[in-house]
Specification:
Order of helices and strands: HEEEEHHEEEEHHH
Number of strands: 8
Structural class: alpha+beta
Distance between the termini: 33 Å
Strand content: 15-25%
Largest sheet: 2 strands, antiparallel
Shape: globular
Helix content: 25-40%
Strand order of the largest sheet: 1-2
Radius of gyration: 18 Å
Number of helices: 6
């Protein structure tokens, strides 16, 4: 448990309206396995994600689609988390975006999926509940922005060192997950 889930849990013991046991710690897996935590784009948050309850999600998309989205989200997450764990990465959480193919009436997975921008990737080695795990995602950049008082500001110039460190984390995640070197896939002239 991390990010907005951790913040919500510390505030009132819930995550997206789901009551959780007392005493959970930062970075701890949910006791009963992964949970579905829907969100929507919120005008009040500048079109950023707003966590909502399962009930609210059903109000927005309808019961038929809400149930299917939850089923697909958990299925894709479980599959990806098992794959990543075998390669030394914990997918602590991730965000999926779904749409509707109106011709087939099928829920479809859209947008980026399981990237360091849409997920929290933590190293298995050195992972310990209650500590800030070594990550391969945008948390490093987010922490730098927050530390500099720049989080959410437009036109920020990120120093080369911060860019290189972030890039290195993304590359390491790629290499662990694919078993291939970055340079084999994207020669330097293409990056």
């Amino acid at each position: 448990m991390a990010g907005s889930a951790w913040t919500s849990y510390r505030r009132d013991g819930t995550v997206c309206g789901i009551r959780l046991p007392v005493g959970l710690r930062h970075g701890q897996p949910f006791p009963d396995g992964p949970i579905y935590t829907p969100s929507t784009k919120a005008v009040a948050y500048g079109e950023h994600d707003e966590n909502i309850s399962r009930g609210r999600a059903a109000e927005i998309v309808g019961d038929k689609y809400a149930g299917r989205i939850e089923e697909l989200a958990l299925q894709v997450y479980r599959c990806a988390a098992a794959y990543a764990l075998e390669r030394g990465i914990i997918i602590a959480d991730t965000k999926f975006e779904f749409g509707l193919d109106e011709e087939t009436d099928e829920v479809v997975l859209v947008d980026e999926v399981l990237t360091p921008d849409s997920s929290r990737f933590w190293a298995v080695d050195g992972y310990e509940v209650g500590t800030a795990p070594r990550s391969f995602d945008k948390q490093f950049l987010r922490d730098w922005l927050t530390g500099e008082g720049l989080n959410g500001k437009e036109g920020v110039e990120v120093p080369g060192e911060v860019v290189r460190k972030t890039e290195g984390m993304y590359r390491e995640a790629f290499e662990r997950l694919t078993g291939r070197r970055w340079e084999e896939v994207l020669p330097e002239k293409d990056t």
